[in-house]
Amino acid sequence: MSMRNALAALSLATILVASAPALAERNRVPEQDALRNGVRSGEFLPYQEMRSRAQGRVDGRMIGSEFDPGTGRYRFKFQRGGSVIWMDMDGRTGREIGRVGQ
After folding, report:
1. Which H/E stretch holds residue 102?
2. How many alpha carbons fall within 13 Å on the CB side of residue 26?
């Protein structure tokens, strides 16, 4: 590798490393921030605890989840055979508040 190529590669690497925090900030998900802050303040139960509760209530494989900071609800999606089951849980109390599917 020539000196010119080595300097170009080093310059590119420096730019990528310097821009990584900005890229990460741009890709942040507001729901994750709201959940993180809510768990820290004690307003919401942690994701892992909610996931464990949900998995204990449904005989199936979890295939997705999401959190709605506006309502404080977790939604878990399970697959059992050819069926899909959606379960909503209250992120403040940990209780199941709705389910669709069999």
Report:
1. none
2. 5
State the DSSP string of 47-69. HHHHHHHHHHH-SSEEEEEEEET
pTM exceeds 0.70, yes or no: no
Phi, psi torsion values for 82, nearest 5 degrees: -95, 10
What stretch of H or E contains 87? strand 83-90
Whether 65 and 77 have beta carbons less than 8 Å apart is answered as yes
Q: Is 44 helix (H, G, I), strand (E, B) or coil?
A: coil
Tell me which residue has tokens 């059992």: 80
Instruction: Identify which of 82, 99, 81 has the alpha carbon closest to the alpha carbon of residue 90.
Output: 99
- The percentage of residues in the chain with a pLDDT greater than 90, rounded to a whole number, is 62
Q: Residue 96 forms beta bridges with which residues?
A: 89
Per-residue pLDDT reduced to its tens digit, 43-93: 999 999 999 999 999 999 999 999 998 999 999 999 999 999 999 999 999
